[in-house]
Design goal:
The complex is a heterodimer of chains A (518) and B (288). By secondary structure, chain A is mostly helical. Chain A has 22 helices and no strands. Chain B has 288 residues and is an alpha/beta fold. In chain B, a hairpin with a 2-residue loop joins strand 8 and strand 9. Classes of the chains: A mainly alpha (518), B alpha/beta (288).
Chain lengths: 518, 288
Amino acid sequence: MPALVLIPVLLVLPQLIHGGGWELVGQFAMAAVQPSLDPVVIQSVISGLGTTVSMALLGWAGSMVLGVGLGIASSRTVWRAVLGHGAPAELIRKLLAIPRSIHELLWGLLLLQLVGLEPVVAVVAIAIPFGALVARVVSDLIDALPTGNLNALRAAGAPAGPALVTALGPPLLPQLLSYSSYRLECALRSATLLGVFGLGGLGTELRLTLQSLNFKELWSGLWVLLAAMVLLETLLGWLRHRWSMPNRFTKKAMVSGRQGQELVALGAALIPLLVWIAQGQQIDPGALLHWQPLPPIGPPHWAELAGLNWPSLVGNTIVLTGLAAALAVGGAPLLLLLVAAWPLGKLLVRGIWLLARLWPPPLTALLLLFVLKPGVPTAALALGFHNLGILGRLLLECAETADRAPEQALISGGTGPSIALLYGRFSSLARPYLAYGAYRADVILRESVVVGLVGATGLGSQLLEALSSFAWDQLLALVAVYAALTLLGEDLSDRARHQLLETAHGDDQSQEVGGAWR
Amino acid sequence: MGKGLGGEKAGWNGTQIHTRKLPVISQRLMADNPGAPSDGGPGPALLELQGITLAGRGQQRLEAIKLSIAPGERVALIGASGAGKSSLLAVANGLIKPNGGTVLWQGAPPAKSRRQRRRQQARIGTLWQDLRLIEELTVQQNLNGARLAQWGWPKALLNLLLPLETGRCAAALEKLDLDQALLDRPVASLSGGQRQRVAIARLLRQEPLLVLADEPLASLDPRLAEELLALLLDFTRAPRALVMSLHRPDLLGGFDRVVGLRAGRVMFDQPVDQLAKDQLTALYASSL
């Protein structure tokens, strides 16, 4: 159904095409098979990749430490066990919504203005919003665990802390690790994206080569990035499989047994590695404290602020989000269905999705501008394409682990492969997939800021403008509106998700948790 | 339910049957009885509930409960489902705070200081109907979970990584005729019967004075239920004591006392051999 959105988009497309850049697009496509192999280029690409991967790893590690700490601090179960009621958890949750609602790009650009171009900026820019997001997921995971075992240990006289760790730690750990591995993939994408906006690393190189129309060098960078991404995804997928971790749709952990030692050893090995990387990249957390002299902050211009066309800004942002989300959510199963009959086509779709995932949306937007006029549909295409890659991969991952029996029954009954796939396998995945799509829509809303660059009207572009012109009053107002919109969207998508999944928990144990002697 | 009880009063005296079935385990359990404070004299009751009232969702769940458990007593708690048996046990082990009345553990109210209250709670072991073993952890880690009251943070964390106190855990398994090789197995991989015994082994590790058991026999096949009952009755000889909720009056044999609960009130509290059939009928009668 969401695929129906393709029709209006396709209808608008001809009006947007300005026809000037087909030649460039051709050159771009040709360059894919003949990337520059100049040693200087390769070396700079590799070192750029090194920077990007380092930023991603450090930002990810920071976000995990922050997120787990804050996640525990914002869990109702934990506060109930320690204090007797969960009120502080609610407060911390509400506070964390603010850093979460602001995209890492905004954090990056803000910090860039404040402390200048320091390697630490990208790391912190990733760590803050990711950390807040991880905190939310961690606290949700903890609170979704049954509390029977916790109560049993408490009733036997165990202190709150050790009882929490013993009863909830083991079921939580595989879920947490699985989630954190997905976060690492996201961190790599974000680090690339931050690079596109000038924070260094491979992203910066990609943008520069694209703007100078040096497609061969661009493709050298792209192929290297592609290789790194495939390597990372394969490695993490293998680890998830090895530790029999849940995938994103089921969120149900299997037995981990006594793999705790292995995990602790891995964690311990990670710390010196991270320190080494931090030193290699000359990350200096102290740099965060040395603010650059700011241009004098003038009195706020309320009139000018009120003069902004708010309804259109907000409206465009929402339309952009809706279009991109529908493209991504509808496109993934549609593409899979179209190629279901040909194994080669499946491989092709897989490849396209891989590219879509790692190719930062603003670069797609720039590329689209060769042939399309700037505007909301162009930005939506860029954003939708990127998220299509992410959603498609998840869909494929789950479709492959799903039960094939109904599909085989259909095929043996003479049904074509596409229809068999649709009825046999997708139908059982539809609800979790749409639920995840609802979550994705909320991510897309947050991400809509990154395509503001291509001049699509919306809050994003206005924000970037305010940022570069040091209009702090405007910036503040825009960030506030953006955050409010994101939180609203989050709430909506949460509701949609709950409705789709109907996560009803038995309330047998709620009484026990509430009333223990404190 | 109460059918067939009439002429079989003698049959309730079934202790010998149970102990005969599992002589080896019984002897081991008896040998395990603690050298804990027991002068055999009429010390304070292990548990005393005085006028316990508990408000539930919309209705009273417990009303003016008065109950006292002395060392060595094995008390059966019977009543229809919803009569308040689980609530009563949860109040007794400190999981739920009553709205009114006093709970005394060994003559003392719940301590104000958390540390002392934990020490009190460590003397009360609970066997949960759903066992509440941590599936992801090994048997040994689960057994050690019972020692968290005594252990500090470092040992609690180490327990998640290393096998601690293997000797004592093995001894607890051995008393229940379980293979020591199970120590390393995750609980999730055990059979139903094995899990039941591991849960009891965890009780042994806790070394409680008072054992509270919430329908541990429900959902067990008859042979397993009798075995388990025999184990628990043996484990809770003086100076220990047992309170077990049951919904099968035919298993009352080994108990000393029976307490009947109906709609949150104590209907009767008397020695098992004085229980009359019409009392049971009244207890389980539909309120309509």
